[in-house]
Structure prediction request, 363 residues.
Amino acid sequence: MIDSDCIDIKWMKRAIYLASLGKGQTSPNPLVGAVILDKYRNLISEGFHSKSGMPHAEVMAFNNLKKDAKGGTIYVNLEPCCHHGLTPPCVDKVISSGVKKIFISIEDPDKRVSGQGIKKIKDAGIQVHLGLCAKESLELNRSFIHRNNTGKALGTLKWAMSIDGRVGLENGMSKWITNNYSRSLVHSYRADYDAVIIGGNTLRKDNPTLTTRGKKNQEPLRVVFTKTLDLPEKSNLWDCNVARTLVVYDSSTANTKYLKRIPDNVEIEKLSTDNPQSLSKLLAEKGCNNVLWECGPKLSTAAIKSGCIQELITFIAPKILGGSNSMNPLLDFEFRDMNDVFNLKEPEISIIGDDICVKSSFK
Ligand SMILES: NC(=O)c1ccc[n+]([C@@H]2O[C@H](COP(=O)([O-])OP(=O)(O)OC[C@H]3O[C@@H](n4cnc5c(N)ncnc54)[C@H](OP(=O)(O)O)[C@@H]3O)[C@@H](O)[C@H]2O)c1
Prediction:
């Protein structure tokens, strides 16, 4: 049983809200917010981690103190760090501040912390209450926790389809299935991700831009995963003034003569394409907590089969494309029994003009 009352829940929820203000900006770091009360339980400061390289939430809150924190309480949605990273350990700040109590929602899964921050604070004689609003905190930092536990970036797969479940015509035409509002919403969604992934064929067919259209200062990294490297000389993704682009190709299958089509400002990496997990791992190593897969049926299916996808965003438009050769969102998983099919969690459904947006995740 957690020793807490409604007031503690209120302040922890405030810390979680503050943490959420850093969404899309903090990777590879987590989202963290902190609230400090004085010994009379009055709010005397708050802060959040706004961007990787910027002060941690606790430090920001201690730097903004309006009164002495001695004898006070601090609320933080993630265990304070106890290691030297880009900034000094937050536990030292907590201990030297003279606070009496700290509410920590969840432990930091980072192996350099993982309970050791809590131990240091306890050893200094500060009361530690762990677990308040843990469900909300786990959800908020889902991608950070996933990357720390698996070494891979959390994957969301997004597609847009007609009411008869088609993502494009037989000739590859798929622009535009959904309405302007849905497309604008996709630009906003991209702002929450560290990278957006497509396959080489989507680049050839659609020549997408894959940006937030200015909704995020630092645009997500645009990633093209290709076996052949047969990419066009002209492409919107080659303009790296708007956003960085990374081409990841398989040196065992690609024709490297095509490398000369790719401008110098585009980043290039070699990787086996046999299992897209290698891409999730590479992007995690590059500091991506989460990635948005916006690929067509072939790469989407390979990504699901290899466990790269944890969440799904599906837009459904009131159109009928028809035709047995029109594109399905996914290829065959070779299920032969209904007991084998994927069952998803209860979806979140919203109406976007005349489109429907369904968000779900794998169980
Ligand atoms: N409606 C929608 O939401 C939506 C979204 C995206 C795309 N599309 C449509 O989908 C079509 C393209 O479909 P697609 O399935 O070819 O998509 P894709 O996104 O281009 O994925 C397939 C490509 O990914 C690369 N790849 C790398 N590793 C792979 C692996 N392990 N397995 C499979 N592919 C791998 C290959 O590129 P290389 O060929 O370069 O080697 C392959 O051709 C286009 O017509 C596009 O308009 C629709």
Residues 250 and 272 are 5 Å apart (CA to CA). DSSP finds ten helices and 14 strands in the chain. The chain has a mean pLDDT of 96.
